Structure formats: C-alpha cells, structure tokens
C-alpha cells in the first residue's frame, strides 16, 4: 500500500511514523515533510507545499497513491479532498464543505445550536463597535475568537474588558471579516479526537493540551506546548456521554446539511466542576501536539482505521486496541516563540534523547547537508510512554534534557495538572 501524508509538522511526522510501522504500508511520501520524516524507513520527502493542490493531485496520480492522509487544515479548507476524490483517489480528510467546521467559528456555532449540542453562547460580529458593546454588556472574563484560520492562535480569553477591546480591534486589524464573542466557560479543557466516516463516529483516547507558552498556563496562546493521554478528566463514562451528546449529533447535523464527512472530528471541550460538558471549538483534522501523545498508544494499525473511514466501514471495524499506560509529549520550541524566532540553528542530542526511550517527532526542522536544523517555532515534540503518567513524565524530561540548540525553550510542567 502506498500512502501520502500531506504536511510538514509534528503531527505529520507522527502520522507517517504510525503508518510505516505497518507491514501493509510499502511506501510513504511526505509532502513536503521535514527533517524527521526524511529519516523514517520506507519514507520519502517530496518538495510540494501543502497549498499546491494541483501539484499534489498530479503527484498522487502519477505515483498511484492508495491513500492520502491530509494533516493540516489549510489544504482541507482549500478543497484538496474534493480535487483528489474527483480523480478517484482515496483521501482521509473532509471536503471543503466539511472543513468549514474549523474554517468558520460562526458557521460551527450555528450548526451546534441547530443540532442541540451544548456549547458556549455568543454572537458573531462584522464590525468592532457592536462587538465591544456586546462584550461590555456581557462583562469579563469573556472570549474573543477570529472567524477563520489562525494557526491555533485566534482565541483570546480576555480577563478584563480592556483586554477584550484590544483583542477585538486587533483581530479586525489583522483582516478577519468576522469575529465571535462568547461567554467564558470555567472548568478544565480536554481534547477528544474522533474518527468519522460520515455515519459512524469512534472517539480516540482523550488528551489534554497545554496551550499557553508559560508554566502554570500563563502567557500567550501557542499552537500547543505539550499534551498527555489519556486525560483523567475524561474517563470512559464521560467519553460515552461526549459520544452520545456531542460527537454523534454533530456528525448527524453535518449529514443533514448534505456533507459527507470522512476524517477527524476534533472536539475541544470544557468540563465544568459539576461535570457539565460544552464544546469550545471543533477542528477538522488531527490535533498537534495531541496526535503525538494519542497515536503512540494506538495498537490497531492506523492505515486500517483510516481506510475504514474512507470506505465508510467504520461501524464494521473491531473495537480499537490500545497499549496500556500513559503518553506524554513535550514541545521544544525556538526562543521567542510564539513571537519572532530564529531559524537555522543546528540541533544536537537527538541520538542521546532516543537512548532515553523517547520518540522525537520533528515539527519545525529541516535536514541540510547531514545536519538537522531548526526551521519553525515549535521545533520538536518529544514523546514518552509509561505504565502510568508519573513514569511517562519522568522519562520524557530525561529525553528532552539531552537535546540542545541555541535559545531552545520548553515547559517543565506538562502533565502535572493531572497529578
């Protein structure tokens, strides 16, 4: 089986790493891939950017690719799945219509309300003045969201009205045509990534992401500084509730709109102190860095599961098998991230880290003249497994401590909230 993984981040390295472990997968092409995917067995990087849809389609046709797995949201929102399907190529990832789930917060909010899925109440605005008036009426803390793709950084939790006013002005200044202002939901966040074939929805193990740059969840929002799985805030009984009250009704609502959704339904949820669960947001693809913590625990071959989604046979699949224990991923970032940062610094200690029984997933890296160099804000995702969360945390930090590059930064408290 020949597969193509679209993307260049830590999520894509993890997807490729998971796929090539199966004897059923003979070739894996990463478009464009990174310094880590360049070193995977059975894997070749192909220098085609994720937004070059015509080139991607031509390559997949020429190479007779059996399954395309789309990592990031951008090519999905541009309609890559639609173009590949028109050529008769199997692809895991929703169509452009389905990707609205992530591309438009207001569209998703309307869908959830229509479906009766519990979510924060709020309103959509096309001008700053009424948005500010609404925020003033609601009071702080309050949440301001960009209605469009923002690389995981389009949500501002404003603790004061002054912060809300600034956030509203900045998002409109950045060119967003619409924003959503909604109530602040207290509680604890959990990410539930579910597989959907258009009819059946199967949730994966719950994970918890650490969005803020600073320890103790302080500072600016990032794309994610680490994750652990499974998250104890969402035991099996809670996941069963999420499946019945949130995931399946969402899939049904998409189908009612004529959307054949085959891909990941990634629900960002808030669990209140009383156990009430509400949707914060939906994404239309695997999470990053949640994927780096979830997939290493999956014992069922990944290509088997993804192909069942594409073929709409998820309901006939045997229950997913999981390795026992916990997984923790710590993101190693470039100094200055999520602001401006430097590229091109050589990364050392990768072999030494691997010797500590961790897996190093590359995100913002490139391989140049035999050296692995930094090439992004989130540079690496170091993952460890353990019989319990404490063991996984201890192992992962032993691995992280072996890695060196100028200005490297990582949080030292990933997973501690669960302890």
UniProtKB/TrEMBL annotation:
It holds the Pfam family GARS_A. Its EC number is 6.3.4.13. Transmembrane segments: none annotated. It catalyses: 5-phospho-beta-D-ribosylamine + glycine + ATP = N(1)-(5-phospho-beta-D-ribosyl)glycinamide + ADP + phosphate + H(+). GO terms for molecular function: phosphoribosylamine-glycine ligase activity. Residues 109-311 form the ATP-grasp domain. The keyword Ligase applies. Pathway: Purine metabolism; IMP biosynthesis via de novo pathway; N(1)-(5-phospho-D-ribosyl)glycinamide from 5-phospho-alpha-D-ribose 1-diphosphate: step 2/2. PROSITE patterns: ATP_GRASP, GARS. Coiled coil: none annotated. It is an enzyme of class 6 (ligase). InterPro entries: ATP-grasp, ATP_grasp_subdomain_1, PreATP-grasp_dom_sf, PRibGlycinamid_synth_ATP-grasp, PRibGlycinamide_synth, PRibGlycinamide_synth_C-dom, PRibGlycinamide_synth_C_sf, PRibGlycinamide_synth_CS. Gene3D superfamilies: 3.40.50.20, ATP-grasp fold, A domain, ATP-grasp fold, B domain, Phosphoribosylglycinamide synthetase, C-terminal domain. Keywords: ATP-binding, Ligase, Nucleotide-binding, Purine biosynthesis. Its cofactor is Mn(2+); Mg(2+). Belongs to the GARS family. This is Phosphoribosylamine--glycine ligase. It comes from Synechocystis salina LEGE 00031.
């Amino acid at each position: 089986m020949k597969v193509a993984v679209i993307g260049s981040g830590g999520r894509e390295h993890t997807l490729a790493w998971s796929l090539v472990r199966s004897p059923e997968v003979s070739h894996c092409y990463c478009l464009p891939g990174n310094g880590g995917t360049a070193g995977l067995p059975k894997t070749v990087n192909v220098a085609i950017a994720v937004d070059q849809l015509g080139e991607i389609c031509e390559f997949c046709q020429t190479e007779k690719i059996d399954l395309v797995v789309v990592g990031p949201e951008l090519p999905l929102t541009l309609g890559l799945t639609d173009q590949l399907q028109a050529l008769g190529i199997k692809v895991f990832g929703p169509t452009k219509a389905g990707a609205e789930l992530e591309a438009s917060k207001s569209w998703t909010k309307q869908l959830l309300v229509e479906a009766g899925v519990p979510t924060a109440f709020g309103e959509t605005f096309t001008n700053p003045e009424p948005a500010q008036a609404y925020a003033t009426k609601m009071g702080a803390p309050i949440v301001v969201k960009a209605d469009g793709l923002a690389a995981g950084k389009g949500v501002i939790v404003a603790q004061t009205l002054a912060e809300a006013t600034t956030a509203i002005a900045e998002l409109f200044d950045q060119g967003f045509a619409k924003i959503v202002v909604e109530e602040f939901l207290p509680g604890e966040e959990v990410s539930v990534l579910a597989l959907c074939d258009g009819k059946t929805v199967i949730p994966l193990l719950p994970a918890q992401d650490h969005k803020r740059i600073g320890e103790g969840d302080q500072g600016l929002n990032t794309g994610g500084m680490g994750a652990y799985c499974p998250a104890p805030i969402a035991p099996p009984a809670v996941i069963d509730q999420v499946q019945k009250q949130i995931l399946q009704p969402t899939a049904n609502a998409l189908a009612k709109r004529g959307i054949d959704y085959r891909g990941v339904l990634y629900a960002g949820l808030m669990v209140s102190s009383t156990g009430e669960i509400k949707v914060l947001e939906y994404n239309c693809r695997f999470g990053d860095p949640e994927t780096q913590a979830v997939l290493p625990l999956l014992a069922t071959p990944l290509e088997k599961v993804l192909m069942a989604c594409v073929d709409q046979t998820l309901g006939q699949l045997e229950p997913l098998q999981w390795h026992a224990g916990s997984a923790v991923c710590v993101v190693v970032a470039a100094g200055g991230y999520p602001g401006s940062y430097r590229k091109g610094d050589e990364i050392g200690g990768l072999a030494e880290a691997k010797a500590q029984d961790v897996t190093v997933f590359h995100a913002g890296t490139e391989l140049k003249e035999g050296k692995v160099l930094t090439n992004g804000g989130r540079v690496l995702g170091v993952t460890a497994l353990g019989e319990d969360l404490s063991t996984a945390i201890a192992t992962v930090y032993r691995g992280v401590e072996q890695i060196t590059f100028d200005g490297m930064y990582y949080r030292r408290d990933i997973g501690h909230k669960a302890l």
